[in-house]
Amino acid sequence: MTQIYTSQTHERDLVQACKRRDRKGQEAVFKRLAGKMMAVCKRYLGAGPLAEDVFMEGFMKVFTKIDLFQEQGSFEGWVRRIMVNEALMALRKEGKMKFQETDFGYEIGQTEDAYVNLEVEELNKLIESLPLGYKTVFNLYAIEGYTHQEIAEMLGIQEGTSKSQLSRARGLLQQKLNELHV
Amino acid sequence: MESAWRRKMQEEISPIPEGLWEKMSARLDAEEKPKVFFIKTWPWAAMLAVALGLAWYASDTTHEADGNVISGLKNLPTTTKRAARQEIAHVRSLARGKSRLNSSLKNKGMSERALVKSTPVETIPRAEAMQVKEEVAIKQNTVLPTHVAMEKIPEKEEVIWVQVDIDPMLQVKEDMSNMAENMAPKKRNLGQLLKKIKQVIKGNPGEWSEIKENFHLVANKYVQTEENIKQKFQIQ
After folding, report:
1. Do A111 and B1 touch (CB under 8 A)?
2. Do A60 and B27 touch (CB under 8 A)?
3. Does residue A76 register a pLDDT over 80?
4. In a domain? residue A99
5. Residue A70: is its pLDDT beyond 80?
6. Which one-letter DSSP state was computed for residue A141?
7. Residue A129 is part of which domain span?
8. What whole-number distance in Å separates Cα of residue B134 and Cα of residue A87?
9. Do A19 and A58 belong to one domain?
10. Staple A159 to which of A152, B13, B93, B165, CB 3.0 to 4.6 Å?
């Protein structure tokens, strides 16, 4: 009997279907998460073929390693984590992961509601304009919610480096936001 | 501000190019195919392994059968063994006779010379023309049982025909008569020469021209005899 999966199907059922290597279940998962995961890849790698390749590799890993998912946390979070790791691996392979030690930081000034109400496209443009190291650490810390310790382990850098990179990223974003509203 | 950005960014959805799921599905198929192939093929591999094992076992039993044949050969009845030994001895004697004949033919010249020296010409018996027609048929598996023959003597039946159609004694007679004719004057000349040399040594000088003549005669005879022998035996 072929099961039909809709947008209303529970995440747990989809995971079980994926564990059974049910192709329809896999398709349903893919269609549900593809847009969000592609956004993740593009945020780290920019819009281009590399982001698409990483996206495909990430989903391949999701479907082939689905048995490792313990079903204790969010499935979407697990998939997102895989995508982020794949993106970082791709950056490492490309030799783009270079971080400069900075011993000074920027304090973010008072935030305005206007900045909070920025559209996603504008936010993406701002983040995309950052240097790669700042952008990566900012994405990991501010968007994905990793701690500095986790970021340091993921990128193979010192925790202090992660902090300073984030500080520099924040300073540059502040500067760019100010320029937008001048 | 960052938490507000986080909420927004985590809900962001990017457009997906067309046909991406088809690509993914094809890759998943390719990923799963080797496993399916293995599952489908392993019973065949097992059957092949069993067949190989059976073939090996069969070859092993054939070896055992060979061993049984050999042991059967050892346990042959005594009469059969004796018959086999007799046959082998017969074949060996035939072969020995053949080799003797060959060697005698090779050493014909030497034996003839010896015969001439040791035996007078008159005492040589009148040998009739000898026709030697020897047939040596070695049939090595004539007596042995078939299975024994297959094991012990794998060679095919070998038949050796040796036909010698010569009259050696007649030839010897002719040679001897010639040599006897030559030997007499040779002995005479040589004897005279030695006699004259002895006289000279004793202090009785003779005619130098006679000695010289005898010397030449002996030398000529020697050369003539040598040439005759060479012609007879075709010695280069």
Report:
1. yes
2. yes
3. yes
4. no
5. yes
6. I
7. 113-180
8. 100
9. yes
10. A152
Size of interface A-B (CB pairs under 8 A): 70
Shortest Cα distance, chain A CAs vs residue B11, angstroms: 7
Q: How many whole angstroms separate alpha carbon A5 and alpha carbon A13?
A: 9
**Do the Cβ atoms of A164 and B28 come closer than 8 Å?**
no
- The reply to whether A65 touches chain B by the CB within 8 Å rule is no
pLDDT at position B3? 77
CB contact under 8 A, A143 and B17: no
Chain B residues with beta carbon closer than 8 angstroms to that of A115 = 1
A135 and A80 fall within a common domain: no
ipTM greater than cut 0.90? no
Q: How confident is the model at residue B76 (pLDDT cuts 50, 70, 90)?
A: low
Please tell me whether residues A89 and A15 are part of one structural domain: yes
Nearest-Cα distance to chain A for B41, in Å, is 21
**Residues of B near A (CB-CB distance < 8 A)?**
1-2, 4-6, 8-17, 20-21, 23-25, 27-28, 31-32
Strands B158-164 and B132-138, sheet pairing: antiparallel
State whether A79 and A30 are in the same domain.
yes
Chain B touched by A59 (CB under 8 Å): yes
**In-domain check, residue A73:** yes
Alpha carbons A26 and A43: distance in angstroms, whole number: 24
Predicted TM-score (pTM) of this structure: 0.50
Record the tokens describing residue B31, joined without a space.
């990923």
Using one digit for the tens of pLDDT, what is the confidence trace for A153-173? 999 899 999 999 998 888 888
Q: Token pair for residue B24?
A: 């993914």
Neighbour-count burial of B169, counting CB atoms closer than 10 A to its CB (0-12 exposed, 13-18 middle, 19+ buried): middle
